[in-house]
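TL;DR need structure tokens for one chain.
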Amino acid sequence: MSSHLQAAREAFAETSVQVYSGAGLLSRLSEVMGDLGIHRPLLVCGQQVSRLPAASALREAGILVGVFDRVEPDPSDRTVVAGGALARGLAADGIVAIGGGSSLDAAKAIAAEAVSAGWIGGCDLPGQPTEIPAGALPVVAVPTTAGTGSEVTPFAVITFTATRRKVVLNHPALLPQVALLDPTLLSSAPREARVAAGMDALTHAVESYVSRLATAETQARAREAVELIARHLPLAAGATPPLKDLAGMQRAALLAGLAFARTRLGIVHALALPLSALFGVPHGAANAVLLPHGMEFNLPAASHLYAN
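>> reply
TL;DR here they are.
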């Protein structure tokens, strides 16, 4: 590993995910994949991301075995099936996921579907444990929004077409091996997407902080995330967001992700999922609308925590 990557690496006790953060780190992707033994990666992203210069540079560099750019907002089980089939057909040995939470979640599920064709068909089981007996391809997660924290969580939210349900898959095999946080990638997102993602991260932090499963460690992560969001989101949501504020939001989303990966979430997310699945409300917007009401509902049981 080069000294540049070593300097960009940060270890977190809560996760096995290797985290690298810094401007321009996407250019080190081939080195990161080499350290993981990935030689035939499939790029998983949405069509908008596939048109970005960063994605074009990866294709031109010849380090990809293929591109799956059909990920939609609130990715469906059909998308997972198609992505898994392409990965198997190309004999991909790893997944590079670039995009927002939808792309990262889809990529993690595709990594499992690539190993076991038809696996996703047996996962429409809300509230039941997710089984991944054959494991998954290694995933390098490169977020282009600062909200979901999917790059450091074992969750993938998939919408099942037949039942119109959004199901939260949860399994250690869904953890990416590497999270590559390059704040330069966030500036291409529309302002509305940056705001919605930031409100998603805030909701993660608040719900984790007041969770009955919270610990002193998770509350410290959640509290730091709230402080970072308060400091950086107003400028990160501007027309020309400063790089330091985009980086601050990336870190906030990651810290909130580390917290809720252990505590899970609450009533706000429970209500936001069907709003997205049934009515197409963007996830971050649904959280933003519902968060004050969820806090009011929980206030009698957690007034001292909300006071903090």
